[in-house]
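Hi Q.,

Before the meeting this afternoon, I wanted you to have the adenosine-5'-triphosphate prediction in hand. No need to reply - just skim if you have a minute. The sequence and ligand are here:
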Amino acid sequence: MSRVLQLHGGDGGGDGTATTGRGSNAMLLRSSSVVEQKLQFSTRPMTVAFKDLSFTVMVKPNTYPAAKAGDKAPAPAASASASASASIDVDAGAAAAPAPRGKKQLLVEKKILKGVTGSFESARFTAIMGASGAGKTSLLNVLAGEVAAGTVDGTVSVNGQSIDPGRIMRRIAGFVFQDDIILGTMTVREAITMSALLRLPRSLSLETKMTRVDIVIQLLRLDKCADTLIGSAHVKGVSGGERKRTAVAMEMITNPSILFCDEPTSGLDAFSAFSLCQTLKSLADAGCTVVATIHQPSSEVYHMFDELLLLADGRVMYMGELEYAVEYFGARGFSCPRYTNPADYFFMSILNDATHSVFVEDAEQEEKVKEEQEEEGKNVIVAPNPLPVPMDLDAVADFLLRDATETGSYHSAMEDIVTKQESPINEKADVRVQRLLNLWPTSEQSAFIKNRADNPAHTDGVKSTDLKVGASFSTQFMFLGGRAFKNALRNRFMVRARLGQTVFLGLLVGLIFLQIGDDQASVQNRTGALFFVATNIIMTGTMGTMTVFSTEKNVFLREFSSRYYKLFPYFASKILVELPFNIFFPFLYVAILYFLIGFQATATKFFIMAFTTVLLANCGAAFGLLVGSMTSDLTVAMASVPMILLPLIIFSGLLLNLDDTPYEFYWAPYISPVRYAYGAFLNNEMDGLVFTCTLPNGMEHRGLGCPNPTGEAVVRNLSFHTLSVLENCIILICIWVVLLGIGYTCLYRGSRRPSGARMLSRARSSSTATE
Ligand SMILES: Nc1ncnc2c1ncn2[C@@H]1O[C@H](COP(=O)(O)OP(=O)(O)OP(=O)(O)O)[C@@H](O)[C@H]1O
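Predicted structure with the ligand bound:
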């Protein structure tokens, strides 16, 4: 099916022009011409059905009040979920039981989704609503195969074909997550362009892709901030709402047949939220299956949705036509009062215990509304505009009291407040919620939804053409290389900090060891200076890369899981782009200190020392990348580095003579890059040196007869004579390559689908979409 999405342009508040900002080819595109264009959406209708979906995690008991007396022990996940949708066991949800043996005895089960059954239809805009913690995000994560830990059970199918969400869903659907992670040094336009270049089919021309970028920017009213940086904790960038809209644009541009958005309107003002939902609604009208979790939508936004999935306590309270929801709850004793936003009513009066307010314009309307509410037997506060809703009873009473004092009116409203009528609405929220949850599986509507999930409107499964195919290796490599370079340069703070650090430490070491001379004391000073250079370089190289990578890693993981690119082009471009920086700074460092200290003043020796320093710095960077890949948290990474590096420094040959290495640690010097760099430094610098000393008779003497007569003797004493400069450098190169290899492997393992999703795929091994 191919439909056309009409653009709602011209409301962007811009000046009517949009700068495309494509280097020297930058052109101005008249807004009017953009809005006249149509974005061709070639979406295939897709129904996403999910049956008996359960998601259980293990948590520490104190994080979940489950071990109370009287709680039922939960059934095993599989059986619980198997029966959940048919007959929902109220206690099973809250229950948590100690795991049977071993370490897991400390943990208890927490059921987050409990047998959720339903379907999302094509060309429908579905809202997932529910109180905070109801399981909305968890449901989307399960559907995206993005479950980091825990057990998932149940089935997910697309157009009748059972799929493994982690493997298939991410390739056919677009996901806008709650935490929109975008590289802070990109501009809005660059972020959307990245999505277009890396995720749109290769068959589309560059021109078409860039035109789409312009159109989507207009569509999401991002033209004003298109060339503003996304920003980060350190750099001010676009607003939260603009960032959210950018995240939506990055998905929208790929023309997904299915679009899942987790709280797309959070952080947006009322109009931006309305406008964004209008765009999402247009997408749905164009044939896309659009699903969005949403908190307290305004009345206008609420009525834009076609369907509603109301979740509570990880279970379905209602699913189906949005308009029918009011009737559904009304038939069960929860009539939504007139003039009231049903979303507010669901949140405030069904899911929670707040009393509802109704706005009226004048006394006449007040009387009318009160009569209607009395007829329906509802406990409703009739309040004058502009009272904000929802609000608590005391606040309303205060307001009315003030108002009554000033105007002498609204006494009747006060009476309403104090004389609450008995109605189902006065049940405690948790009792009410559980009652409604238990009513759902027995309702006709539930049977209808179950039938719809069992018999989807479209049954042609997932085809290979539905799966997103990324850009070619060369495009990925070129784009990522360019981005990484810009990122490095735009990270001015980091560049300046590194430059400052290099110059400062270079000068400091140079001045401390200033003009070292060739007497006996210079032997210790030389070995000390060289050792300090080695340890300093490995530490700064490691910490610098690790800190930067730890912050970038989440961006990588998000982009990788959204199939922007493969790991190899990312990794290769990152190493390649950082190489110039990892050459320049170590070289500068050596250039500053070398002649200040007074090392042997020959070009060869200088360049050998600089080259060795560069190699060591790159080993440090590779090690930093490795630690960053292995750890999920910067604090853990920071703690790990000294734990590994300090022992390697101890075994590098100066602090402990290599020949005296304890037997148990005989292997340690062999894996220490500091040892090889130091070995190369020593052999390079000591070669050809003859030291002076003062004999007992006061005569100055050179060479033989002195405690340390020559550089070679010093090298031999320190047991560094076994490897030449060249051999040390070759081993350093090998260590660098090995560290990169291990880092790559760790990143590969860390970026694979999380365990929960794997469990689902194992459980449903029949899931076979054509790849
Ligand atoms: N991996 C996990 N480990 C422990 N608890 C979890 C995990 N994932 C989700 N939860 C818990 O499950 C419940 C549902 O979380 P979820 O994020 O799905 O709720 P939500 O409805 O999206 O809430 P909100 O609207 O506040 O985002 C919460 O109580 C949350 O703390």
